[in-house]
Each structure stands twice: as structure tokens, then as C-alpha cells.
Specification:
single chain, 32 strands, 14 helices, TIM Barrel, disordered C terminus, eight-stranded parallel β-barrel, Thrombin, subunit H, alpha/beta, 658 residues
Length: 658
């Protein structure tokens, strides 16, 4: 990918969704392989990935495979085998977290650094570039200035990637261990239990309730729609949509939304270009609000905000729709905010109870009773709907008409071609030149017979040459360079056109070389730190060897090795509960009567029997969620034996078994 190209990177739960992502304008797609992906339930067979690759490469779009978990020693051989299979299937790049993979015999496949690598600083980004990563996804928490600093510290050829849409992990990616500590399921191994979406009581150190049953670790969803140009100017070139668990409707809609926005940006800024071929037309108007979301935030891209959390509910609150006018024994009458709104059987409605809990209501049957008035019969008995009464505001979080529309073909992607029809010594030739400059020329013998009706013959010839509807091409211009109008049967022209299309596809395929693997610097780059704690996620001997080779002296084992049995940081995050609850000492600066009374003292989160302590690093403006690993997790099957080794010259020579 060249520095002037802008890439839209879409998720694919499976190959069919990936193909639709390409149809809807994605320049690249990322997808999980058979195993070792950070979304354990989004695995795909190699043959399916090969099918996606074949389709994507027709448009010179790329396919990236995710193999971004940390690996145990006994998994390295299987991971290596899978990487070779992915390479043979035509995958363009591998997204990884575990540095142990760089110590293996890998194919010449391009490497991308996963979000799990926790890339927040220029030094970390430069190091990853120097060990052979061509593309890296930066931490979601970075603001524009921090992104620009990383851009300034790295080569222009190193592509910086940034999440622009979708669910947000509250922790710095790769720096959350709550799931493993509480359940044994590791987020770094693709199996997060999502403790961040649970409700918690927030207590101060005296046990007083600060907040009751709030989802204080649950973030709203990311949406950078209005900041794309600012991100481009800061140095981002790959715009990533989160969602390898998302359904096809989500991927179609959100990909189309960002395709339109990026095309508008490229039209304004001719110094930039798309990273793949063709133009997409849509049979619908994209609207991200129609998909599942927890409301939207731009997170930290323009600095700290107080309203980034989805504290009331981690569910989809939907869009305002109507208010309740009357309740019957088995039905509800609604008056819609917009008289033109149509309700459908199967729509999902929701409302907030008096305790600000989101309650869902599925429509079994909807009947229009007047202008903007509807009688709906819920799927469940009305007695089960708490606090539902006349005047209650109702939202819609599932629109069946919208979903059915996206189940149909909803986009076409075409590559523009110029057609040139000429005479040869014993027949005719057709030359196709596509928008990328690829050329295909085919010839066929045919006798010349003067046309009786020149105008009609010319029109018919243009019509048959331009019949590209069943292909990925569309005619931009058709030039007839003939000494005079000739009569040619439609069968001859159609066959010549089909042969030319096949030849052009072959020319495009031959030119679609995979991006090269970036060479590592020699001598090996030095890692920015000489000591690594469990936060570095080193879980196998190859990863340990990698860091030792790059100058690290002390290397501790990953948290998943269960060596950290005391209280440690189970999550590190830029989100601050004190700030979001207006309890931050910095917020009180200059406020008479408040300044000096607020302290960044710890808080406690309680959910059932679970207790977590929040500690605040105000210098770095970070929050640490502290806790201990559960005895039941420690009693689970023995983890991999990892030997952390102190490599300093004055240290003992033997390793420390853990």
C-alpha cells in the first residue's frame, strides 16, 4: 500500500460476509483462520478464505488473516502450519500479536501488528516497524496529536491503521486480564467474558455508594465519521471497522457508510486515492444508527470527554420512535414522532424503566389505526413490562423493513474500462483498458461486409460491445475506429467481448501481486524497555527469545501463566470512572468550594461476590482496575511451563521456573 492510498478495512465473520464487504466498497477485509484468532467463535476454513481471496483480488482488494492470540509453546507448530496454509490460499497479510511467531520459519507474507500489541507510543511503533511490520493498528485511545507523533517517528511506507467504528474495549487492547482472573477465559487468547459490560456498585473507601448498578466500564460505540479528514491529516491511511462477530447487514451498512465518506474525501483531496479498484453503487442509503450500537462516541480522538460511557445499559437503546398513548389487555397504542413512520411485524422496541433499565418489547403484530397512530401486540404478556405506561417514550432498536432490505442484493461494484474496436488485416480486434491501466486485446477473423444502414449498424455494435452487466466491468467509453461501417452479427461481437473480458481479468490477476514482507533492521532493533512484566504477554519460549534478541534483560511470563497470584492491574485504561462521575480533582480546579476537596482516592467496584479496586494514576491520566486471580482458576489444568530468565550479566545464570 502506497502512502497516498486510503484503505477502508472491513471485518468478515465468514467468507460470504467478506465478499459482501468487498462489494460494498472495502479495500481490504480481515478474517479469522481456523484457529488462534482473537475472536474464538469467528473461525473459518482455509478453503473458504481462499474463496474470499479469489473474489477480493479481482478488485485488487486485500485479505488479511488474523492470528492474533498469544500462543503456548505446544501451539507454535500448528500456528506455523496454519500460516503457511493461509499464504498458499493467497492471503495478503497476517495480523499478529505474539512476537514468538517472528522467530519461526514463516512464508514471505506481510505482517501487520494487531491492536493487541498496544501501540501507544512513537518508540513502540518504530520498534515494530524495525522488526518487520508493514502496518499497525494504533490504540483506539490516541488523540490526533499522539497519532501525528507516531506518524512523524515512522517511515511513510509504514501504514498506520485506526479503528473508526464499532464496539470499544475499555482497556488498552492486550492489557485486560479480568476475564482470565475470574473465569480462566483469556481475552488475549480470544475468549473474553466481557466483565466490562456488567453492572457494578461503585463504593468509596469508606463503603459509601457513589453509583448504584451502573455499567461504569462499558463504553459507547466508536464512530469517527466526522473526523476522517483530521485522521488522514494526522497520518492514518487504513480506516478499520470493528466487528468480526457482526452479521452481514451490519457489515454491508457500515462499510457502505464509510465508503461514501472516504470517496467524498478523496474527491476533495486529489493527492489521495483508493487502495483498490472500482466504484460501488448502493441500492440503499447507509445509516449506522440502524445497526446495533450503544450510542456513539468519538472517544479520545479530540481529547478526554465525560460522556464516553454507556453506563445505563450495554444494550442497544435504538432510535426514538413514539410514545405510549393507551395500554390494553394485550396491546399498546403508540403515537409516532414522525407521522410517516411505519411499524412492522417483528420490529424490536425498547424503553427505559424508572430505574433507567432498558426493557425490550418485540412486536408480534402491528396495526395502523390512524395518521401516526399504531396498535402493537407484543410477543410477551403486557404484565411483564415494568413501568410501561401512557407517556412512556419508546425507541426502535430493530427495524424489520431495514433488515429485509439488506438481505437482498444491495450494492454493485464495477471497474471502469475503455473499449476500442478496430480492424485487422483479416478481421477485427477489441482492446479493453481498465481504470488501473491494465490492457487486454483480442482478435478474430471475420469477412468484411458493408452495412446497409450505417447508423443502425453502428448503434447495434456499440450496444453489444457495451453489454458488460454480467461482469465486474462497466464501459466508460466505446471507440469505433473503422474505415467504414461493417455489418457484423451479434454472435461475433458478443464472443469477441467475452474473450476480451476474460483476457482483462487474467491481466488483472497477473498484476495483483501480494504486498512484500518488510525486512527487519540489521542489527536487530533494541526494544524501548529492558524489563518486561506480565503486561507484555510473553507466553512461549519463542516470544521470550525474540525479546531477548532485541535487548530485553528481564522477561516475565504472561498473566495466563498464573504466576501473578497477588493483587495486580487486571485492566489498564484511559477511561476514568472518577472523571465520568465528575469526581476528578482536575475537574475541580478553579471551582470555588470544590477545589481541594476531591482526591483521587481508590474506588471499589462490586458485582455480586466480585470486588475490584480502582486506582488512579493521575500523572498519566490512567485508571488501573486491580484484582486477584481466583483460586478456582488456579486449580484449572496446569498451564504451560514458562521459564522467565533474567539476562543481566550480574544475575544468576539459571532460569526461574514459573
Amino acid at each position: 500500500m502506497y502512502p497516498h492510498q486510503i484503505e477502508l478495512l472491513a471485518p468478515a465473520r465468514d467468507a460470504d460476509i467478506g465478499i459482501e464487504a468487498v462489494k460494498h466498497g472495502a479495500d481490504a477485509v480481515y478474517i479469522g483462520g481456523p484457529s488462534f484468532g482473537a475472536r474464538a467463535a469467528a473461525a473459518n476454513a482455509i478453503a473458504d478464505i481462499a474463496r474470499l481471496v479469489a473474489y477480493a483480488h479481482r478488485f485488487h482488494a486485500r485479505v488479511f488473516a488474523t492470528l492474533n492470540t498469544i500462543l503456548a509453546d505446544d501451539e507454535l507448530d500448528a500456528a506455523r502450519t496454519q500460516i503457511w496454509q493461509l499464504h498458499e490460499a493467497g492471503v495478503d497479510a497476517l495480523i499478529i500479536q505474539d512476537m514468538g511467531l517472528l522467530e519461526l520459519d514463516l512464508p514471505p507474507i506481510q505482517l501487520h501488528a494487531s491492536t493487541q500489541c498496544d501501540i501507544r507510543t512513537p518508540a513502540k511503533a518504530r520498534f515494530l516497524q524495525d522488526v518487520g511490520f508493514s502496518q499497525m493498528v494504533l490504540a483506539r485511545e490516541l488523540d490526533l496529536g499522539e497519532i501525528a507523533a507516531i506518524r512523524a517517528a515512522t517511515h511513510p511506507e509504514t501504514t498506520l491503521e485506526y479503528f473508526v467504528h464499532g464496539a470499544l474495549c475499555v482497556a488498552y487492547s492486550g492489557q485486560c486480564y479480568i476475564s482470565h482472573a475470574h473465569t480462566g477465559r483469556s481475552a488475549n487468547r480470544g475468549d473474553c467474558s466481557q466483565a466490562c459490560r456488567l453492572p457494578y456498585r461503585v463504593l468509596d473507601m469508606e463503603g459509601r455508594i457513589v453509583a448504584h448498578d451502573k455499567h461504569v466500564l462499558s463504553m459507547k460505540d466508536n464512530n469517527q465519521s466526522v473526523h476522517l479528514e483530521a485522521l488522514v491529516d494526522a497520518g492514518i491511511r487504513s480506516f478499520k471497522i470493528e466487528g468480526r462477530y457482526k452479521d452481514m447487514g451490519y457489515v454491508k451498512n457500515v462499510t457502505a457508510h464509510y465508503r461514501i465518506l472516504l470517496d467524498e474525501l478523496i474527491a476533495r483531496r486529489p493527492e489521495f486515492a483508493r487502495a483498490s479498484s472500482g466504484r460501488t453503487t448502493f441500492a440503499f442509503t447507509p445509516d449506522p444508527n440502524q445497526n446495533f450500537n450503544r450510542e456513539f462516541t468519538d472517544y479520545f480522538v479530540n481529547g478526554r470527554r465525560a460522556d464516553i460511557g454507556a453506563f445505563d445499559t450495554p444494550k442497544n437503546p435504538g432510535l426514538p420512535l413514539a410514545h405510549v398513548t393507551t395500554l390494553g389487555d394485550a396491546w399498546i397504542e403508540l403515537e409516532t414522532d414522525d407521522p410517516g413512520t411505519v411499524l412492522n411485524n417483528g420490529d424490536g422496541l425498547c424503553y427505559y424503566t424508572l430505574q433507567k433499565e432498558l426493557a425490550g418489547l418485540a412486536i408480534n403484530r402491528a396495526e395502523k389505526t390512524g395518521e401516526g397512530r399504531w396498535r402493537v401486540f407484543p410477543k410477551d404478556p403486557l404484565t411483564g413490562f415494568k413501568d410501561l405506561r401512557a407517556g412512556t417514550q419508546v425507541n426502535r432498536n430493530r427495524d424489520m423493513a431495514w433488515l429485509r432490505m439488506l438481505e437482498k442484493p444491495s450494492a454493485e461494484r464495477r471497474i471502469g474500462v475503455w473499449l476500442r474496436f478496430t480492424e485487422t488485416a483479416d478481421g477485427f480486434a477489441l482492446t479493453l483498458t481498465d481504470e488501473d491501466g491494465h490492457v487486454a486485446r483480442v482478435e478474430a477473423m471475420h469477412a468484411r461486409e458493408a452495412a446497409r444502414d450505417a447508423a443502425r449498424t453502428q448503434a447495434s455494435l456499440r450496444e453489444h460491445l457495451g453489454k458488460l452487466g454480467a461482469t465486474i466491468f462497466e464501459a466508460l467509453d466505446i471507440r469505433l475506429e473503422l474505415s467504414q461501417p461493417w455489418f457484423l452479427p451479434a454472435s461475433f461481437v458478443n464472443a469477441l467481448r467475452r474473450d476480451a473480458v476474460v483476457a482483462l481479468e487474467a491481466a488483472r490477476a497477473a498484476a495483483c501481486g501480494r504486498p512484500p514482507r518488510a525486512p527487519a533492521a540489521a542489527p536487530p532493533a533494541t526494544y524501548p524497555e529492558d524489563t518486561l512484566s506480565y503486561l507484555a504477554n510473553v507466553f512461549n519460549h519463542k516470544a521470550r527469545d525474540f525479546y531477548a534478541r532485541h535487548g530485553v534483560s528481564v522477561i516475565d511470563a504472561a498473566y495466563e501463566s498464573r504466576t501473578e497470584t497477588g493483587e495486580v492491574s487486571l485492566m489498564i485504561t484511559r477511561h476514568c470512572v472518577r472523571y465520568s462521575l465528575s469526581l476528578c480533582p482536575k475537574q475541580a480546579k478553579g471551582v470555588t468550594g470544590v477545589q481541594g476537596t476531591l482526591r483521587a482516592a481508590p474506588l471499589v467496584l462490586v458485582n455480586g461476590s466480585e470486588r475490584l479496586t480502582l486506582r488512579f494514576d493521575c500523572k498519566r491520566c490512567e485508571m488501573h482496575v486491580m484484582g486477584t486471580i481466583k483460586p478456582a482458576v488456579l486449580r484449572q489444568a496446569e498451564p504451560l511451563k514458562f521459564y522467565a530468565m533474567n539476562l543481566r550479566p550480574d544475575a544468576p545464570a539459571s532460569g526461574r521456573p514459573v
